[in-house]
Amino acid sequence: MSKNKVNSYHFKYKGYINLQLILSFFAMSILTYYFDQFDNLTKGFFVVFVLITLINIGAQLEQKRWVPYLEHIRFLVFCSFFIIQSHNYFLLILPFIFVFIIEKMFNFSNWYQKSILKII
């Protein structure tokens, strides 16, 4: 084996990252095309969701330990937007309960770090 050979890390879920990137591009395209037709809440949601997704992609590639928490935040933003749009504000607690259960009962963050990021 050559001394100059560089060991490259093979990211197990690069399809997941590619999907996130495609969805971000698609979301920004929709926002740009229909910008005048969206209200400020929808515009804000698109921008926040895409920014979180792009930060998430970079953090996954750098294997940051806080990525699972950013996934939680992205999930909460996504669910909250649709609940607010439906005017069923009492349902806003459900995504938070879901994230709490997933984190406490199934230890999502550790699983994510071991399985997806291959940290630990």
SSE topology:
Layout lengths: L13 H20 L6 H22 L5 H19 L7 H14 L1 H9 L4
Helix pairs in contact: 1-2, 2-3
Please outline the major beta sheet: none
N-end to C-end Cα span? 28 Å
- The H/E string reads HHHHH
State the helix count. Answer: 5
How would you state the average pLDDT, rounded?
84
Helical content band:
over 70%
Number of strands: 0
Cα-atom Rg, whole angstroms? 18 Å
Structural class designation: mainly alpha
Shape, please? flat
How big a fraction of the residues is strand?
under 5%
Query: What ranges have pLDDT less than 50 throughout 5 or more consecutive residues?
Result: 4-8
Verbal overview:
The relative contact order is 0.11. The protein starts with 13 loop residues before the first helix and ends with a helix. Helices cover 70% and strands 0% of the residues. It has 120 residues and is mainly alpha-helical.
Characteristics:
120 residues; mainly alpha; 0% strand
Summary, kept brief:
This protein is mainly alpha-helical and 120 residues long. Helices cover 70% and strands 0% of the residues.
